[in-house]
Amino acid sequence: MSEAVVEVDARDLLCPMPILRSDQAMAGLRQGDRMRILATDPGFKNDLPAWCAVNGHSLIQLSRKGRLWTAVVEKGA
Question: What's residue 33's pLDDT?
Fold first, then answer.
């Protein structure tokens, strides 16, 4: 699937909340589904790739514009 199925708005939340919200949203998705995450926590750039690696998800995109991080993650097995 190419488009995000769900969007997680974690703006203005500090660690660990962006990852916890992402984890909760990911639980409701099927393998191959994608999720878009918006976050402003500076640690998100390090936390998200680590979370993806531990959980078997694929980090498709991680970009920053100003203080806003936008990520797309595909659910793994």
Answer: 97
